[in-house]
Amino acid sequence: MSLEKPRYDLSATQIISRAIELYTSRLAVFFVPFLLAQMINFGSRYALEYFLLPKDIPDVRGNFQTFLMEYLPHLTIFTCLLVLVWWITSTIANGIAVEYAYSLLEKGDVNLERGFLSVIYNIKTLLLAGFVTGGITALGFLCLIVPGILFMVIFSLVVPVIIIENRGALEGLKRSRQLVNMGWLKAFAVNVITIVIILVSSFAGEALGFMAYPLKDLIGIVLVALAQPIQPIAITLLYSTIVLKERTTGISPVPTYTQAPLTLKVAPYQKFCYFCGQEVPFDAVFCPRCGRQIRRPFHAYDVH
């Protein structure tokens, strides 16, 4: 496979196909960051459960008020900390995948140390953009499902924009929206396909986990980590495709407007009265001798 940036406008299926090819050509490079992220998330969940959640959970059916007072605060802290850990690890893993994918497309090779340091350098911006995007998307899903999907697609290119174009969080969100507007249906299709791939791998992990129950958690971690890199790689290819379209299409310059010079349409006049022959001034309307009108009066609406 030729590790090159797209030279023409790729379709959604072509983007997914090339993302899988790019992923399999450097499987370990993309897989390891997501495997580590999944292991950290898994370990954090069990550690937080052990230290934060009470051993004896009150029965919610017995006394709901007691359940709220004794268990809900622990559950809230547990959930917030778990989301925080997931937010940080997923941001780093996705950023590394985008940096690696773009390096492969640009140079045909990847510098692991440089890619990792680039993500760490932009970590604050990535976390802020992820927080804003996640918050807006979550609110959209809480209100109605459709707004959540729209926001998810609109801001799906924010990580490549921040990593590749070195933009700030708010600039990245604005730029992502601008790029997605040039290929909204394609961005929607790529996001949906990658999400379906991750969900299928998650369900497959659950199914295989029941067949080999002692290895249930390990199987789920590995399968999800195997599927997750496809999403940032596909998003990077989508970004490159839309940027190529933006450069080749371009924005036609606004035509310059040349104002035509004003011309005064002056009514003809006579130097002599053609009734009595009296010489008259050039701007005279009536003959001073016979009193007859010799010229049409000038009005402002005669200017065109």
Question: Helix- and strand-based class?
Answer: mainly alpha
Q: Treating each run of at least 4 consecutive H or I residues as one helix, how many helices?
A: 12
Dominant shape? elongated
DSSP strand count: 0
Helix share, percent: 55-70%
Roughly what is the average pLDDT, rounded to an integer?
81
Rg, nearest Å: 35 Å
Report the sheet-strand fraction: under 5%
Q: What is the H-and-E element order?
A: HHHHHHHHHHHH
Largest sheet: none
Low-confidence stretches: 251-259, 300-304
- Give the terminus-to-terminus CA distance: 67 Å
Characterize the structure shown.
With 304 residues, this protein is mainly alpha-helical. It has 12 helices and no strands. The chain has helices spanning 12-25, 27-52, 64-70, 72-107, 112-121, 123-143, 145-154, 158-165, 169-180, 184-211, 216-227, 230-249. α4 (72-107) crosses α6 (123-143) and α4 packs across α12.
Short description:
The chain contains 12 helices and no strands.
Provide the fold topology.
Layout: H1 12-25, H2 27-52, H3 64-70, H4 72-107, H5 112-121, H6 123-143, H7 145-154, H8 158-165, H9 169-180, H10 184-211, H11 216-227, H12 230-249
Helix pairs in contact: 1-10, 1-12, 2-4, 2-11, 4-5, 4-6, 4-8, 4-12, 6-7, 6-8, 6-9, 7-10, 8-9, 10-11, 10-12
